[in-house]
Amino acid sequence: MITIDDIETARERIAPHIRRTPIHEASHPLKPLPVKASVVLKLELLQVTGSFKARGAMNRLLGAPAEDIRTGICTASGGNHGLAVARTARVAGVPATVFVPENVSPAKVEKMQKWGADVRIAGVDWNASNEAALEHARTTGASYFHPFADPLVVAGQGTLGLEILDQIWDFDTIVIAVGGGGLVAGLSTAIKARRPEARVVAVEPVGSPTIHASLAAGRVVTLPEITSRVATMSCRRTDERVFEIARRTIDAAVLVSDEAMLEASRWLWFEMGIAADLSGAASIAALQSGNPVFAGSRRICALVCGAGAEGITS
Length: 314
Known about the structure:
Blueprint: H1 4-14, E1 23-25, E2 38-43, H2 53-62, E3 73-76, H3 80-92, E4 96-100, H4 106-114, E5 118-121, H5 126-140, E6 143-144, H6 151-167, E7 173-177, H7 182-194, E8 199-205, H8 210-217, H9 240-249, E9 252-256, H10 258-272, H11 282-288, E10 299-304, H12 310-313
Parallel strand pairs: 2-10, 3-4, 3-6, 4-5, 7-8, 7-10, 8-9
Antiparallel strand pairs: 1-2
């Protein structure tokens, strides 16, 4: 689907349009994380629009012919990708239409609208919203930006891996939240190309174990239902090409509950003053779980990938 060369090209292409986000040592907490390793946080929630999605959406825009978007851009999103597409469309000067599921965060809808997007509720989960987005693209000619099953989007997300390697060379484990799989596919491609010995740990909700179930089956599976309320991490089925990357590069997959992600979001706010949404806190929830997958780690990079007020207000 992509190579390290695609990610290097994406990094150069999108550099003028994204932020280089900081790292932060998770030191001196009142309630330490139950791991022996030191932990450093990659604060990608400080990216434009509040998540890593700005990288993939911008690479999708700049890597395709300009005439493809003349009638606008549309997508389906649990929230963060929609925000990135709304911002990307504004940069391009074209309209954006974002289809979202019923359980989308109202705060993220409001932000999409402030970026100028036409936001439409469609269905109970992302898959239903995606059908609506595809129909909209067919009937209007709008350019459809898939959140994960697109090589340009995945390569854009992979630029985050190169940035992490520039900042934190000494980690031996990286923990990544997973929804459809585009982030982990891109980021792990970059990490394994430059640091093949580093371990990649994927984190999914118990109620949406898309990659976990596919890895267990040895093939892409379609989940019979989604019970997680975390719209940004809920997807019934990943892409075949994304799965092939995941199968080669993911060393372990950890499942966490929605409640654990909420507690992790509260921990980030109390201990670090970081306002992360539930997907952004998923890596911390995995570390708090006591899962033995982290027993041998010495230095862990935990990706905080999305911004939100859940840990402040809930």
